[in-house]
Amino acid sequence: MIAYNVITIRAARKRSPRPTMARFRLELGPVPLHHQVYLDLVSALDSNEWRPGDRLPAERELAGRYGCSLITVRRALSELAREQRIERTRGRGTFVLHPRLDLNFGGNRGFADEMLTRGLDPATRLIAARPESAGEAVAAALDLELGSPTLYLERLRLAGGEPLLLEQVHLPAERFPGLLASDLEHGSLYDLLTARYGTRIVRAREALEPVLLHAREARLLDQRPRAPALLIEGTAFGADGAPVEFARSYVRGDRTRYYVERVVVRASWDADPATAEAGAAAPALQRSSHRSRDSSPTNATTTPTPTTTASTG
C-alpha cells in the first residue's frame, strides 16, 4: 500500500506541467509595461491573430504570455475597451469587436470608393422603391407643393457583407421620370442622375443627430432596438441651385466614427500678412454627399456627435 502511494505521487509529479514561458519580453524603461502589452495586443488584432467575434485568452493566460501581473494585463485591456476594440463581459470573457471606420465628414468620396480604399467590398441592397406624395418635411426641403409626386428610395449599404448605413431618399418625380425602372442596386445613383437626366449634384447641406434606432431600422442594420446610431439628414442641390434630393441616413454607431478637419482663422491674425497668406493657401473643406446615393456616400462615427450642419461651397 505504501509503495503504491509512492508510485502514484511520483507519476503525478512527472505529469505536472512546466511553467509557461513568456512569449513577449517586456522591457523596463520610459514606456509603461501596460502600454507595451497594449501595443502588442493592438498588433495582434491588426494582424488578425484574433478576429472580430473571437474571444481573447483569459487574463491569467495573457499574463503568462507577457510575463507580467494581472493588473498590468487589465490596464492594457481597459485601453482597448475604451477604444472599442474589445468588449469585456462579466462571466463570458473578452471578445474582439470590429474596428470602427474613421470617416472624414468633409470628404467628397462616395460610399463605394471609400470602402474600396479600406479593402472592403461595397454592396447595395434595394429595400424599397415607390412613388409617394410629398409630406411637409419633404415638400419644404425640395421646394415643392404639399402632396406633389416624389420618388422614394430606401437602400441598405453594406461593406464586407455587413450593413453599415440605411439611406432613405426622396426625389422630385417630375425631374426624374422612369427612375424607378432603373437598376438602383449597382453603380452610383448620382452618376445615374447625371448621365440620364443631366442633373449633377454639386453641393449638399447636412445635419447630424444622435438617435436610438427603432425596431425596423435596427433589424435592417443588424442591431438591437434602441441601439445608438447617427442620423444624417440633408438636402442635395444641382448645378442650377435647385434642391433635387432630400435624404435621411442611419449610420451604425458601433462601426463608424466621423471626424472633421477645418481651417483655423482668428480675427486678430488679419493684421499679419504672412498669417493671412498661409490661411488663404490652406485647402478649403468641401462637403461630401455622405450618403451613398451618388454611388455611395460615406464617411461614417460611428460615435454619435452633437448636431452640426455642414455645407459645401
Features:
single chain, 313 residues, alpha+beta, Arc Repressor Mutant, subunit A, Chorismate lyase, 2 domains, 7-stranded antiparallel β-sheet, two-stranded antiparallel ribbon, 9 helices, 11 strands, 28% helix, elongated, disordered N terminus, disordered C terminus
Low-confidence stretches: 1-21, 284-313
CATH class of the largest domain: Alpha Beta
Average pLDDT, rounded to a whole number, is 80
Task: Report the count of strand segments.
Answer: 11
Overall shape: it is elongated
Helix content: 25-40%
What fraction of the residues are assigned to beta strands by DSSP? 25-35%
**CATH architecture term of the largest domain:** 3-Layer(aba) Sandwich
In CATH, the topology of the largest domain is named Chorismate lyase
| Rg calc | 27 Å
Tally of individual helices: 9
Give the domain tally. 2
Strand count, sense and barrel status of the largest sheet are:
7 strands, antiparallel
SSE sequence, one letter per element: HHHHEEEHEHEEHEHEEEHE
Q: What structural class is derived from the secondary structure elements?
A: alpha+beta
**Distance between the ends:** 93 Å
Strand order of the largest sheet: 4-5-6-9-8-7-11
Question: CATH homologous superfamily name of the largest domain?
Answer: Chorismate lyase-like
